Amino acid sequence: MWLYFALGSAFFAALTSILAKIGIEGVNSNLATAIRTTVVLLMAWGIVFITHSGRLTDISGKSWLFLILSGLATGASWLCYYRDRKSTRLN
C-alpha cells in the first residue's frame, strides 16, 4: 500500500509545480501564495473534521514547536518558489 501513496505523492508534487507555474502568470507571487495556502488550509481542516483526527490538546509542546517550525519552513519554501517562478517568467 505504501507504494501507491509514494507514487501518489510524487505525482501530486509534480502536478503542483506544473499548476503553480501556470497559475502564477500575471499574479503577484505573495497573493498566489496566500491563495494556495488558503486552499491547503481548508482542505487540511476538512480532513481533520471528517476523520475525527484528534484534539489539539493532545499535542505535546515539543510537537507544537516542531510543527510550527515546519509550517514556517513550508511557507518560506512556497514564497521562494513563487518568487522564483515570477523572476524566471520576467527574464
Sum this structure up briefly:
The mean pLDDT is 87.
Overall description:
This protein is mostly helical. Helix content is 82%, strand content 0%. The chain has three helices and no strands. Helix 2 (29-51) runs antiparallel to helix 3. The termini are far apart. The mean pLDDT is 87.
Mean pLDDT over all positions:
87
Distance between the termini: 43 Å
Order of helices and strands: HHH
Tell me about the largest β-sheet: none
Helix/strand-derived class?
mainly alpha
Proportion of beta-strand residues: under 5%
Count of discrete alpha- or pi-helical segments spanning 4 or more residues: 3
* Helix fraction bin: over 70%
Q: What key attributes describe this structure?
A:
single chain; 91 residues; mainly alpha; 3 helices; globular
Write the layout of secondary structure elements.
Layout: H1 2-23, H2 29-51, H3 61-90
Helix pairs in contact: 2-3
